[in-house]
Amino acid sequence: MEEDNSINLPEYVLLRTEEPQVSSDGHISTGQNLVYNIEIDHPLQKDSLELLQDYFIQKGEKDFVGINKIIVRTYLKGTAIHGTPYASLNLVAGKKETLINEEALNIEELSQEDSSDEKVKEVADPIVGKYFCNRTHDTYVFNSDKTGFFTIQGGGPSTFTWKCSGSNVTIEYEAFGEQKLKFDQRSETITEKSESFGVLVFNKQ
Q1: pLDDT digit string (tens) for 86-102?
Q2: In terms of C-beta distances under 8 Å and separation of at least 24 residues, what long-range contacts does 10-19 make, across chains too?
Q3: pLDDT, tens digit, for every residue of 44-62?
Q4: Edge-to-edge strand order for the sheet containing 69-76?
């Protein structure tokens, strides 16, 4: 009988699992990723963080035999909406790489300040929120103060400012310039025309 290692783990919440596609013969192609998104209450010491990450690696290798790439994104409480993990573990072909993002600590402080203040203003703009693309696993976040984040899977966030007129959304990156998107309030989706992937649809989370 296997020992349950989870009883010794730091406290966490599993936010979302992005599972790889498995073919009819049970084969997982090398391009497929398994992604665990988890949340913790506060920054952990290195050994506790590694214990938690190793638990999900073992779980992933057991649940998806033959998986080549496992990503464990660890968010501090209240920061997942910004798409900036506190720690990201990438396991590719047996090699582990862990990235600690200090910016997430700043976001956590801002999130705590927001939650401590009484929210007098209601969110008026329906576009405000987080949007996720099932095809590319990229994320858009639109904040009520007209700022936002775009996060490519496994990468850090790129900040932008935005404005919305009807279904037309214009976002402006400091480094990359302007980009046009479409917003469908009824279906709660953002549509992006990508040179590499064609039309991408981002669904509100």
Answers
A1: 888 888 877 888 777 76
A2: 10/40, 10/44, 10/48, 10/49, 10/51, 10/52, 11/40, 11/41, 12/38, 12/39, 12/40, 12/52, 12/74, 13/38, 13/39, 13/40, 14/38, 15/39, 15/75, 15/80, 18/137, 19/64
A3: 888 888 888 899 999 998 9
A4: 13-18, 33-40, 69-76, 87-92, 95-100
pTM value is 0.49
Counting Cβ atoms within 10 Å, is residue 158 exposed (0-12), middle (13-18) or buried (19+)? middle
Write the single-letter amino acid at 25: D
Question: What residue type is assigned to position 36 of the chain?
Answer: Y
Beta bridge partners of 114: none
